[in-house]
Amino acid sequence: METLRTLLASLGTPGAVRNAEHALLARQAEDRALTAFVERMAAIDNPALAAPAA
Questions:
Q1: Chain centroid to CA 10: how far?
Q2: How far is residue 7's CA from residue 9's CA, in Å, rounded to a whole number?
Q3: Which residue of 36, 41, 43, 47 is most buried, as measured by CB atoms within 10 A?
């Protein structure tokens, strides 16, 4: 993240750095949410995966 911050700082304003950082964090959050959603859907499709081990 620091490398990106340095690169953007050399190209633009501090606001641009913050915007880029927020965009990256939002993308990471979206990726985590999609992964959790896909895992949950797979568990629903295969109830044996969602059931606790006996």
A1: 26
A2: 5
A3: 43
pLDDT score of 33: 96
C-alpha 18/C-alpha 24 separation (Å) is: 10
Q: What pLDDT score was predicted for residue 48?
A: 66
Classify the C-alpha dihedral 35-39-44-45 as positive or negative.
Answer: positive
CA distance 27 to 15: 18
5-54 pLDDT tens trace: 777 667 767 777 788 889 999 999 999 999 999 999 888 877 665 556 55
Cα torsion 33, 36, 38, 41 to 10°: value is: -120
Is the Cβ–Cβ distance between 23 and 46 less than 8 Å? no
